[in-house]
Every structure is written in structure tokens, then in C-alpha cells.
Amino acid sequence: MVRGRISRLSVRDVRFPTSLGGHGADAMIGPEKGVVHLATAAVLNAVWDLWAKQEGKPVWKLLVDMDPRMLVSCIDFRYITDVLTEEDALEILQKGQIGKKEREKQMLAQGYPAYTTSCAWLGYSDDTLKQLCAQALKDGWTRFKVKVGADLQDDMRRCQIIRDMIGPEKTLMMDANQRWDVPEAVEWMSKLAKFKPLWIEEPTSPDDILGHATISKALVPLGIGIATGEQCHNRVIFKQLLQAKALQFLQIDSCRLGSVNENLSVLLMAKKFEIPVCPHAGGVGLCELVQHLIIFDYISVSASLENRVCEYVDHLHEHFKYPVMIQRASYMPPKDPGYSTEMKEESVKKHQYPDGEVWKKLLPAQEN
Questions:
Q1: Residues forming the active site
Q2: Which residues of 313-340 are buried (b: 16+ CB within 10 A; e: fewer)?
Q3: Which residues are registered as beta bridge partners of 228?
Q4: How far apart are CA 264 and CA 341, in angstroms?
Q5: Model pLDDT for residues 275-307, shown as the tens digit of each residue
Q6: Is residue 313 within 8 Å of 284, Cβ to Cβ?
Q7: Is 57 helix (H, G, I), strand (E, B) or coil?
Q8: Considering only CA atoms, which of 132, 175, 183 is closest in space to residue 155?
Q9: Is 221 exposed, middle or buried, given 0-12, 13-18 or 19+ CB atoms closer than 10 A?
């Protein structure tokens, strides 16, 4: 860096630095998980943002235009070569070159399909649920997710309301946010199967790979897939979920894994196992970030939109300089250079701890 500007940056500078989490005292709060891994993601996400700005491209376009060998050089293959080698990755990416220009034009014209989570959070009254669902339908949404798991009878009522409103032809997903033990998940979802959900998300502990496999084996015959991944620590957990046939929909997160680098390895493993990637997103910039990864995935890796959709939550986008653009219930590819992560200076100032305007109001209230 020279006077705050990038003087030189190469792909070697953004190789996934597993050394941040695997040596000495750092290993006690890792390795490759927890706070160290989240910090790794934060640092590397910033580097990718800077690199893309230097190139004058959004991150998705930087990745799409990158030579397959350079993309492979960004990935740490340690611990995953039993399912994905450098040669495997290169072959997938080289095959992805076929039809790439056409898929990029398609994304620019149509966008990447999204679903909404904003209609049916736990705790919403029936009237609020109906109002939000009606507005979403009016706005063109065709895929909806409902939170479940607190009370079975409440879930039955709320799912009936949503299914009646959206009709049988539109897609419904369910999310338990790790509520259940394995037998409970199977029993509960067997009773909710009548509402024809595409998937149940995070039915149990995100660390329980074999538990997910058991639930998957029980629910797939009912037409219900398992979706998980937003809380997965690293590529190794994803590798095992894929090996165990424990999920039918893989959910990457742009800030949980080690930035673009580690997400690349997971996208490629998902392609090898032919499992669709349906990213986790939400407020505080997750939508802004993950849109780049999934657009790249379609253009250069999966080349398919079958059973693929990206989460959208209408929260907190007003704090970002380059907020996501949703049209026709789809993510339109961002055109501004970078990773869409930059927040407005005013928002940062207001929320800065402990002197920001927001904290100055919150802290006295907590003391009282």
C-alpha cells in the first residue's frame, strides 16, 4: 500500500491463509473455526473488495473473467483432496468456460432468482403475516420461507395461512434454526409435509453431520430436502455433509467461511456432487456479499438454475453505499467495482461504539 492506495496486488496475496487459525495459541480458538475464522473472512473480504476496485470490476465479474488456473491458485485444498483435487477443480472450471458468455448475458438481463424470508418470522401475528405475504405476492415473489419449530400447532396454522395465500404452485421453504433433536425433526416435519415444503433448513445442530444424514434419509421420501450450511465452520464440514448425503441444498455464507477463497472450494465440491447451492443471506450486508458468489457460480461453475435460489431479506440495506438491486424477485448483478460491502459513513458514525448516536441512546437506557 502506498499513501492508502494499492500499489501492487496479485492472486498470491489472497490465497486462503489457514495459518491465521492453525498454529500456536491461535489453535486454541480455532483452528479454522470460531472467532479466528470470522476474522479471516473479514480481512480477506476486504482484500477482495480492494482488488476488485483496483480492477474496476464487481467481485463476481473479477471471478468470472479470471483464468481457471488463477482461480484454482486461490484455494486451499488441504483436508479436501479426498473429494476435490486441484485437477478436479481445474476440470470443472474449464468446462464452465463453455457457454459462459451467454450465461453472463442472461444474468445481466434477468438476474439470479431469489426467495424472501421477510414475510413469516416467528412472533409475527397472523394479520402481519397475511399483510406481508400479500405485499410480497404483489411485488412478484414466488418463493417464500417460513420459520418453524417453536410450537407444532402454531406452525400448522401459520403454514396453512401461507400456503392458502400463495397457492399450490408457488414454492414454500421452512427453517427451524437448529431447534430439534434428530427424532423430533423427523416427527415434526412428517406432520408439516402436507404443506409441500421444498426443504427444511437447519433441522438440528449444524455440527451433527450424521444427524442430518438420518433426517435426510427419513424426509426425502416425503419430498422434503435438507438445507444447511449457514453455520458450517469450514470446507471440511461441507465435505462431510456431501459425503454423507446429508443435504440436498447447500447454503454457503459469505462471512462464515474464509472469504471468497474457501467459498470457491465449497462451490466446486457442490458441483462435483451435483448438489445445488442456495446461499444464506440476510441483513448487515450478507445479501450484498453473497450475490457475487452465486452469480459467479452460475456463470462459471454450476451452469444451472435448477432448484437454485438465493435468500433475500429486506433489512438494513439502506446503510450500504451499493445496496442490492432486486427486480422481478431476482438479484440483478451489481455493476459498481468491489464487493458491495462499503457502508455509508453516516451509518458507521451513528453506530460506532461507544460514542455513536445509537449507542449514546442505548447505553443509558440499559443502565436504567
A1: 147, 280
A2: bbebbebbebbbebeebbbbbbeebbbb
A3: 250
A4: 19
A5: 999 999 987 899 999 999 999 999 999 999 999
A6: no
A7: coil
A8: 175
A9: exposed
